[in-house]
Amino acid sequence: MNAERFRAHYRIRCPADQVDQRAAALAVEQSVEMPPTAIRDAVVLRDVLATVATIESDPAGDSHRVVLSLSVAATGLEAGQLLNMLFGNSSLHDEVTLLDVELPPSICDALPGPVAGAAGIRERLGVPDRALTCSALKPIGSPPEALADLAYAFAVAGIDLIKDDHGLADQPFAPFAERVALVQRAVARANRETGRRAIYAPCISGGPTRLAEQARVVHDEGVQMVLACPMLLGVPSFIDAVRLAMGVPVLAHPAFAGAARIAPALLLGRLFRAFGADATIFPNHGGRFSYDRETCLAIAAAARTTQGTHRAILPIPAGGMRVERVEEIVADYGRDVVLLIGGNLLEAGDAMSERIEQFVARVEACTGPQAGSS
Amino acid sequence: MNAERFRAHYRIRCPADQVDQRAAALAVEQSVEMPPTAIRDAVVLRDVLATVATIESDPAGDSHRVVLSLSVAATGLEAGQLLNMLFGNSSLHDEVTLLDVELPPSICDALPGPVAGAAGIRERLGVPDRALTCSALKPIGSPPEALADLAYAFAVAGIDLIKDDHGLADQPFAPFAERVALVQRAVARANRETGRRAIYAPCISGGPTRLAEQARVVHDEGVQMVLACPMLLGVPSFIDAVRLAMGVPVLAHPAFAGAARIAPALLLGRLFRAFGADATIFPNHGGRFSYDRETCLAIAAAARTTQGTHRAILPIPAGGMRVERVEEIVADYGRDVVLLIGGNLLEAGDAMSERIEQFVARVEACTGPQAGSS
Q: What is the largest CA-CA distance in chain A?
C-alpha cells in the first residue's frame, strides 16, 4: 500500500464544543465510511483512514478550518475518484465547504493539466503580451449562417477568441457539425483578410458517443480550441473525451459549477486547471452574478500560481461585462487576461461594429505595446 | 423551429419589489443569455426565449416560487444540455434554487429511464413483494479477497443486494477487474449453496476509456447490476457509458450531488430516474446526514409516481441506518423499498453473521408473506 498522504481544507460550521467530533466524522466519511473500531485491517487503519491534521476556529467559535490528511492511493490517481474522496458524501453535509486542496506531485502528474496554457494560447494567436479579447456567438436559436456572419464580424473587427455561447449544443436549429464548419470557415476567411489569427472555440457537449462525433468534426475542420463545461460533462469525461481526445486548448465554462459548495478559486481555478483547462471563465464582480472582487482575484491567482508541472492558464472574467469597464478589468487582473464581452457588443445593434472596434482599441490602448505599464 | 415548451420551478430569494425583474432576468439567463432587445430574430424571441409563467410569493414576501416556460428545442433532447437549460448559469446565483421540472413526453421519451425499475429488480432477485435488503463491501483499502469473503458472508446470510462501497474505484489495492471477478464468483457460489439469487453491484467510475474497460468486465463476468455516481461521472456519461452501454440495472449513488442547489426529490428522485437509475440511494433522516423526513419521503414519491414511460424505481434510504430501525423505515416507505445497512453490520465484529441474520429476519417479519399489512 502506498502510504502517501495529501491535505484537504474544509470549513465546518458548528458549535465549538462539537468540532472535534465533527472533524473526526468528516475524516471517516471521506475515507473508510464505516466505524474505525470495526476495521481489523491494520494497513487500512494506518494508510487509508483519513486523519484530522489541524483545526483552527474563528474568534466567534462557530466556523472552523479543518485540515484532513487523505490517502493518495485511495484516489486511484483518477480525477472523479479524487473529487469523491474530497467531497463525495460531504457534499451532502450542508455545514461543510471544501476550501482548498494541496495537490502533491503524484496527483498533479496524474492529472493532465493544460495543453497550452496562457503562453500557448498567446503563441497560437500571435499576440505576445497585450490583454486578449473574446466574444460569444449568440443567441441560441440562431441558424448556423447567422452565427457564422457574427463570427466573421467579430474576427474582422479584431476579436481574438470567438466562442460559442455555452447554450449552443447540438440542437436542430444549429447542429454541431454544420455550425462548426460554417463558423470555422467564416473565421478563416476573416483571418485571410486581416492577416490576424483569430480562433473559434465551439461548445462541446453530451456523452461519450456525441463527444467522439464532435471530436471528428473538430479534427476534420481544423478547429484550434473548444469550449466545455466540466461540471455538465462530468470531470472524468471532460478529461478523457475533451482534453485528451481533442488535443486542442480548452476554455472551461462554469455552468452547473456554482452550486457546488466548493470554494470558487479551488474549483474554477486550481482544479479546472489540473483537469486540463487552458483558460477559465468565471462571473466577474459587478456583473450579473454575485461573486465579490476578492473571490474573483483568488480565481485568477489560482489560475497562475505554481501548481506542479501545470502551466499557468488565462483567467476570463465575464458575465455581463461592458466595454466601459475594460480599463478597470485590466487594472484588476493585469495584461495576462482575456476580456469576454458578449451581450454588450450585440446590444449596440447597427453600431455593433463600432462598439467591437472600441472594445479592441481600448484593450490595445491600455495593454498594447504603446500603453504605459499596467 | 419546434415551439414546444416545458416548465421549470425555481425558488428565488429576494425582496418582493425585485422579484419581477429577477424572474425576467432568470428567464434570459437560462435561455438566450443576452438582452432580448438586442435580438432581431423573431423566431428566437418567440420560440427560444424563456418566459415567466407564474410567480407566487410566500407570505413574508422574501421567497418566491417562479415558474419559467422553457424551449424544448433548446435542450436538444440531451440530458447534459437539459441540465444546462435548467440550472447552468443560475447555479452561480446563490439566491436561486431549482425546485421541480415538469418533464413533457418529448423529453421523457428522449431520456432512457430505468432498464428494469423496481419490478425488474424484484424479478431478477425472485423476491416479489417483501422489502429488499442491501449491504456494502467496506472499507476501501481492503484487498479483493477480503471483499469477496465479506460478499460471500452477506449472500449466505440472506442479503439481496451487495454493493461496492462507492469509494471503491479502480485503486491499486483492489483493481476493478480483479475485485469484480472475485466478488461476483463469491456471490455466485453463495447463491448455489442457498438457492437464492443475491446480486452484486460493483462501483463504476472514471472517464469513457475506463468505463469501456469496466463494461467489458461487467459483461465477461456476468455482472447483473452496477452502482454509479451520476454527479461524479457526469450525467451524459452516466447515460451513455453506464445505463446504455452496460445494459444492467443501476443503483444511483448521491455522491457529489448534495451540494447542488437542486431540490433532492427532483435530482435524486425524478431526474436520476429519468437518466436511467433503477434504484436511488439517499441519506435517510436520523442518520449521518441532514435531510429531514419530508425531504426523504418526497424523494421516495418521486421515485414512484407516474413519469411518462419511466418505470417506478426503488428508494434506498441509507447513510448510517441500523438494524433497530428496520420497522420504522418500513413504516415510512412501505414494502417497496431497499433497506441499506453497512457499518452497523460490520461493527458487530465476530457477531456479524448473527446481526446480518437479524437484519434479514426483521425485514422478513415485517414485510414478508407472514407479516401483517405494513
A: 74
Alpha carbon distance, N-terminus to C-terminus of chain A: 51
Which residue in chain A is spatially nearest to B146 when comparing CA positions?
A41
d(CA B29, CA B175): 44
- Among B43, B76, B232, the residue with its CB nearest the CB of A169 is B76
Q: Which residues on neighbouring strands pair with residue A66, listed in sequence order? A: A10, A55
Number of other CB atoms surrounding residue A203 within 10 Å:
28
Q: A228 - beta bridge partners?
A: A204, A252
Residues A230 and B84 sit within 8 Å (Cβ to Cβ):
no
Which tens digit of pLDDT belongs to each residue from B362-372? 999 999 887 85
- Structural domains of chain B, with CATH: 5-110 (3.30.70.150), 117-365 (3.20.20.110)
Q: ipTM of this predicted complex?
A: 0.92
Residue whose C-alpha cell is 453530451: A206
Complete edge-to-edge strand list for the sheet that includes strand A203-204: A203-204, A226-228, A250-252, A279-283, A314-318
| Cα gap A221→B256, rounded to integer Å | 36
- The overall average pLDDT reported for chain A is 94
Say yes or no for a CB contact (<8 Å) between A47 and B208. Answer: no
What pLDDT digit, counting tens, does each position of B295-325 carry?
A: 999 999 999 999 999 999 999 999 999 999 9
A-chain CB neighbours of B289 within 8 Å are: 92-93
The set of residues, in sequence order, having a beta carbon less than 8 Å from that of B165 and lying 6+ positions away, is A33, B136, B137, B138, B139, B140, B203, B342
- B195-225 in b/e burial notation, b at 16+ Cβ within 10 A? ebbbbbbbbbbbbbbbbeebbebbeebebbb
CB A140 within 8 A of CB B48: yes
Cα–Cα distance, B8 to A206 (Å, whole number): 21
The strand order across the sheet containing B250-252 reads B203-204, B226-228, B250-252, B279-283, B314-318
Kindly determine whether residue B167 and residue A206, on different chains, have CB atoms separated by under 8 Å.
no
What is the C-alpha separation between B353 and B349, in angstroms, rounded? 9
Task: Return the higher-pLDDT residue of A319 and B2.
Answer: A319
Where do the H-state alpha helices sit in chain B? 19-29, 42-43, 79-87, 105-110, 117-125, 144-157, 176-194, 208-220, 230-233, 235-237, 245-246, 264, 272-275, 293-304, 326-333, 343-346, 352-367
In DSSP notation, A339-356 reads EE--HHHHTTGGGHHHHH
Chain B partners within 8 Å of A235 (Cβ): 232, 234
Cell 470567438 belongs to A162
